[in-house]
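We emphasize that the prediction below concerns an isolated chain of 136 residues; any contacts that depend on oligomerization or on bound cofactors are therefore not represented. The input was used exactly as deposited, without trimming of termini.
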Amino acid sequence: MLDKFKDMQQEKLDSMLSEQAVLKQQTEVEQQRLAQLKQFIDDMQTNNQMGNAIGLQNLAGMKHILHGLSQQQAERVTQLQGDQSRQQHACIQQLSFTKGLEGVIAKKAHQIKQKQARQHQNQLDELVAHAAVRRS
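Result of the prediction step, given as a token string:
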């Protein structure tokens, strides 16, 4: 019974670890997007050699929009990092729980083995005692 429960908990842990890997991958992708966006904004700032006012105004408007996007992307990365951290904490707790169950199961198995050894020894002792009584 405990073995089935432990197996269920191990499956839950495996699922949680898989979800954590997905979150890690999503975080890395979003961090790359943020870095690319920041690089694009930086490149725009170095290419502001426009001579007319409308071109400069359009450039300023684009930069403003891109800075807003950059802030949203940074918030998305922060959110994913928080999700990843919470998932990692949950995985650690689940791992501890699963390992604890394994310890309980191992201890119970050891106790059963000791009880069986004592019963076997008691049976042998009784056989020896009966044999001694018969010889007398």
